[in-house]
């Protein structure tokens, strides 16, 4: 079955330096869904193992590194993991809080556009810089953060905490 192959790939690579973290966050939800559809507890265990591995790799700044053993982080990867963890805020509250704080610091506001050419500054407000060395704003980074925030808002509303 494909799920077994995918988890075997994760298991094989999770301890290898250089393994990219952004290759695996969608599996958290995938295995949760497989658990809901089949009732097999193994899928729930696998989902939690992947989330725990990602959180273990999280940097003290709140960002997630590009790959295992690295200190280089970027908004798209951190946003992608934030988006996946945000589906389960009760389980991953601490990690979500620190990653969201880091992401907010990477968001462009009028006060931190000094590395952006003046002609483009108004277009960059609200976007997220790619990383500390690259001032480019990538739309998919913003999409991951927005989807993660939407998951958090949806969870709040479904629990009656509007």
CATH topology: Glycosyltransferase
CATH class categorisation: Mainly Alpha
What would CATH call the architecture? Alpha/alpha barrel
Helix content: 55-70%
Number of helices: 7
If you compute it from the alpha carbons, what radius of gyration comes out, rounded to the nearest whole angstrom?
17 Å
Q: What is the number of strand segments?
A: 0
Shape: globular
What share of the residues does DSSP label as strand, in percent?
under 5%
- What number of domains? 1
Notes on the protein architecture:
It is a single chain. By secondary structure, the chain is mainly α. It has one domain (2-158): Glycosyltransferase (Alpha/alpha barrel). The chain is built from seven helices and no strands. Helix 4 (75-85) packs parallel to helix 7 (139-158). The mean pLDDT is 93.
Summarize the structure.
The protein is mainly alpha-helical. It has helices at residues 2-13, 26-38, 41-57, 75-85, 89-105, 121-124, 139-158.
Set out the fold topology:
Blueprint (H helix, E strand, L loop, with lengths): L1 H12 L12 H13 L2 H17 L17 H11 L3 H17 L15 H4 L14 H20 L4
Provide keyphrases for this structure:
7 helices, globular, Glycosyltransferase, 58% helix, mainly alpha, 162 residues
